[in-house]
């Protein structure tokens, strides 16, 4: 939602409350009794509320249709719509100036900053179009320059009949006309091409500081708009100017799509190897190519680019050069493929009893049943002593079911969700090398290889597989010396994405360290370390973060490191692998109540669905099925792994591991 320059307002212009939101002040007012307010949600979060005193004059009758599409799609780079009521739309408050304020205070934008602004805004536009939003209505005041990058504000579709008696301002206002396409002036319904026209005009304004269609009078301006005679002024010759010129043509079907524009901006000219699932792609009529129009051929969906580019140019730095990349592993023979273990779908009732399977090294017993939706994939026990015989790390062969020792207790090992790949790393690699390599074993082909992931001064405490079993995310940690003797502090510095089949890695820096440092003594950095995990879609990652109120919340980032979603109210995500339920619809957190509890939330909405009393000495490590957690508790020298339901009742014992109460017992389950 837009955060306009505050308007002068009297006390009578403040309605006090709009729905559940307490109004702080009015920000702006427009025609048809529409006003925008800065407000606070019941939880104290700052939001922007757009209020419609006469809803039929400006709002569609059923906002649920477009709201659902927004929530289902990857609307990266936008100020998110949070709530919709009968007479209001509440959205995210972006703490930063709108584009006109930035231009007024600091002048036109140029160079790399202009390129980043163009990429960020057209990425948001492409995502909205893919969500089925036909017309966004971009204008300078809806481009917000937040602390985490540019955002495009979209309050939802609105009626705006400028010839209507309800329209309270001059229908020929040059400010209102400047960001409209020629077809709108002719009375045609605007669609995605109109957004590309307006986007190009806004980018020209950002680059020059002036309206590209301003001709000195309203009549002359309308004539220039009707003929699409834009004045790009001193905008530098090059790829961006060429693209804006193509977007500012008069004929709608000759303008590039937002996705085409995005690919041109980032110089993407090779065939994409990843396509976005059809379920998130709204149908759209194909545009006829313009003769001589410089375009990029797009054989597959541009969803990968949307996932990588939101908010600006990627901050990722590849560890390998292009010439050093190794080819993906080939199957041993034509038609060879990996078939994951079949697992039941949905919650089980009752849970199967399980048959005892002895763990190696006298570690204890696992209780398993073929109907179990999960299977123990690896186990690591470290009692902290110098006697290595009392500590071990084992991983399971998915073909034989046997546990095999994979290294010393400092070796972290985990099977991919489908069981095909085993990943291992040495958490104490600094003892022998200045570079961390992740080793992979392909259980289909038998191939073994390593991928470099981190170099000094970065280390890591763990990693996690994507649900698609094709990528690994590693949290990059940097240690800094403290002021006192032998005092060191660790901070999360970013994350590394490893593409297993391509055998490449990308380091993505983040702002986590700066945020923790800015909290001062209120946060102990050594006890607050964000660990990155994959979101269910495999196109974004998530980690806990320090909120403005110095509490903990969940933040989603795209694969370039840009924040795309915040849940400041949920507490700290919990689990040692995949935080999300098998369907991806739920996740669990701790630190979400006045007493020790586990809270279960809906991933799509952030709505709480269950509050479960925490068990003394127990720790939640993952999900058994949609209605049961996997938890480890310590009792009488035995670490008991159980499936616990939302009522807090133990429904099944999954394993019993014999180890001292002080020992670290790390168990990882897989669904393949």
TrEMBL record:
Gene3D superfamilies: Transferase(Phosphotransferase) domain 1. It comes from Sphaerisporangium flaviroseum. Residues 323-355, 377-400 are annotated as: Disordered. Pfam families: Pkinase (PF00069). Residues 21-271 form the Protein kinase domain. The chain crosses the membrane at residues 296-317. It comes from the Bacteria. InterPro entries: Kinase-like_dom_sf, PAK3-like, Prot_kinase_dom. Keywords: ATP-binding, Membrane, Nucleotide-binding, Transmembrane, Transmembrane helix. PANTHER family: SERINE/THREONINE-PROTEIN KINASE SAMKA-RELATED-RELATED (PTHR45832), SERINE_THREONINE-PROTEIN KINASE SAMKA-RELATED (PTHR45832:SF22). This is Protein kinase domain-containing protein. Belongs to the protein kinase superfamily. STE Ser/Thr protein kinase family. STE20 subfamily.
